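input
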Amino acid sequence: MKMTMLFAAAVLVTQQGGVDPRPPNAKDQKPAFEAQTRAPEHKTNVAFDVVTAVEGIEKPWGLTFLPSGKMLVTEKAGRLRVVAKDGTLSPPVSGLPAVDARNQGGLLDVVLHPQFASNQLIYWSFSEPHDGGMTNTAVARGTFVDGAEPRVENVQVIYHQAPSMASTMHYGSRLVWNRDGTLFVTQGERSITPGRMQAQQMSSLLGKIVRINADGSIPKDNPFVNRPDAFPSIWSYGHRNPQGFAFDPLTNKLWETEHGPNGGDELNLIEPGKNYGWAVVSYGMQPGITKSEQEGMVSPKAYWTPTIAPAGIVFYNGNRYPGWKNSLLVSCLGGQQLRRIEITKDVVTHQEVVFNEYGRVRDILIGPDGLLYVALSLPGQRVFDTTAGVIIRMLPQ
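output
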């Protein structure tokens, strides 16, 4: 299967300096600073073909490449698949622990250990099931063994979000390695009211980004490691449902996107010990929240209203797509979009809709060939109504 398109054919109508013609959800809200929302459009007119790289997968969620050029893909239902260079799918990788795949749960992100070439370790996040329908975000690692029947061995669950909740929503969950060998994990607050209220509580891991060592232990320089009422793994707090997470390779700054309530999706610059406001302030519409900013809480660098439902993100610093160098690319479930974001001195200056016609966009990855690979659910389908999915490769013209 092959799909082709030119960039210019897939752009939303420009209105009021942005790329979205819809009015904001909350008309009375004011941005905290200029250019915080609806940054003006910048068309780069980069033309590319869209070619199917992988098909026959069900609800792909996370992607990563092996040194061999093969790809690991998580399927939400709990399967990890190995994809050969020709797009052939392996049988499901055996040895993974059970997941709770109801609603937003399942097998989520996957990354390689920074020294994978020598230790063959892979890490993955998932919704961990417990008795009585209780679940939580968890992170496991294991030794990957490739072959005709791939498997993981010596599996250890190295991180458990606490407390578990009777919810199947808002797990997060992205994994990103720091240059110092520590691992960052994003987690949602599980959506239900008891969980939402814990996003501000340091004795809970709901609505937190945490930083752990590669074995699950706690780095000694975490911001709350000496605070007796706080989990020492916490790096930042006040998050709703963060599903995009990436370091800018130029600045080594850590950026995150998270889903807002009925609008108010956020792009945040993540710093240690900071409070990002949920569920006290929001640019979305949530009963009981009347403010969009408050002293002591970090305002988003950008917010989107109505929602674009941002998922996986990546900073592109290659040369295969002229005009996109050093841009942040945001996969969006809402509007079936891939967005390009320009950031200068931590300020979002411009944005662009790269495409909006191929399906709900879940994740984006730069391959070893320098090309962009995008995981999506097929066009015209709601995420809970279909198991179909593909991974596309974007070929510059």
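quick obs: The mean pLDDT is 92.
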